[in-house]
Design a protein that fits this description.
Homodimer. By secondary structure, this protein is an alpha+beta fold. It is globular and about 60 Å long.
Length: 331
């Protein structure tokens, strides 16, 4: 079995920003209230006609490719982690066409805020068994389009973004993906969802109904309890399987959901907050994009050094959560 290495990262965010002050003009809230409860100061959102995750995903992907001077035709597979496609049949194929990756198979993977972690694990399986050599993994969401902007509990949280990672098969000696741990508990799917509701019966004989997807609904208290209890367990399970101690961790990169969650998880693991990678204050919760976006920024800022151990964990709707442990290589 072969190994997996990370060749490059890229990210993209929209130009338009919404500050806490702007939101306080939309719903009954304040800048201080939002910062105190979430850690978020602003979020980027896609505005204008016909703008979608495709625009952000293409830009993030091209930035990753350009860093290593890789031609798009060298990509064998594209996995798009998203819960907000611009086409319910899938958006990965549009990315494939727009970046010119004509030799790549492309498909979507839907797992909300855990999507990028699960996409990385999926890609790693294809690489380790020799099916493909170069894989582009994209995490991209535009949940601002699915927010009820009259709901104070959710409209303050979400922003839009895309992040991309290029993975390549390698020898076991150079393997960077050390291990993973994934979980799902579907009993609590209703804690965080965008439900589909039937509206009008259009064929009484066949009992068929037209319907539409509604806005994001969330039980914030239960999501917090779930994340703070289950994410540390997932991380410890993964670390124990690899015989890696907490003290060996250089960086903790969690899905950027809420600063309270990031702090609570770090505290439970006895990890100093200075080791937590976070850009939540600038972008809010960008769902599947949050981890690759934060990873790309940390690399640009030269925070991550050669041989650093990075623990990455995603969690969210499903309820689904998972952990990857990476050993960084500067090549």
């Amino acid at each position: 079995m072969q190994g997996t290495r990370i060749l490059a990262t890229g990210s993209a965010v929209p130009d338009s920003s919404i500050s806490n002050k702007h939101i306080s003009n939309i719903v009954e809230t304040s800048e201080d209230w939002i910062v105190t409860r979430t850690g978020i100061k602003e979020r980027k959102i896609l505005t204008g006609l016909n703008k979608s995750i495709i625009d952000l995903s293409v830009l993030a992907s091209m930035r990753a490719l350009e860093k290593i001077s890789m031609h798009p035709t060298e990509i064998d597979l594209i996995i798009l982690a998203t819960s907000s496609p611009n086409d319910l049949f899938g958006s990965a194929s549009q990315i494939q066409a727009k970046i010119g990756a004509k030799n790549a198979v492309a498909f979507d993977l839907t797992a909300a805020c855990s999507g990028f972690v699960i996409a990385m694990v999926t890609a790693t399986q294809f690489l380790q068994n020799g099916s493909y050599r170069n894989i582009l993994v994209v995490g991209s969401d535009a949940l601002s389009k699915w927010v009820d902007w009259s709901d104070r509990s959710t409209c303050i949280l979400f922003g839009d973004a895309a992040g991309a990672v290029i993975l390549q098969t390698c020898s076991n000696k150079n393997n960077q993906i050390l291990g993973f741990h994934l979980n799902t508990n579907g009993e609590y799917w209703h804690y965080l969802s965008i439900p589909y509701n039937d509206n009008v019966a259009y064929n009484s004989f066949l009992n068929l109904h037209y319907g539409s997807f509604k806005h994001i609904t969330m039980n914030g208290r239960e999501v917090y309890k779930f994340a703070v209890s289950q994410v540390p367990l997932s991380i410890m399970t993964c670390l124990n399987s690899l015989n890696i101690a907490i003290d060996d961790i250089d960086w903790l990169l969690l899905h950027q959901a809420n600063k309270r969650i990031l702090s609570a998880v770090a505290d439970k693991l006895s990890i100093k907050y200075s080791k937590v990678i976070s850009n939540l204050q600038k972008y809010g919760n960008t769902s599947a994009a949050s981890i690759p976006l934060a990873l790309d920024e940390a690399i640009k800022e030269k925070k991550i050094m050669d041989n650093d151990i990075i623990v990455i964990s995603g969690f969210g709707a499903g309820l689904t959560w998972g952990t990857i442990v990476i050993k960084w290589k500067n090549e």
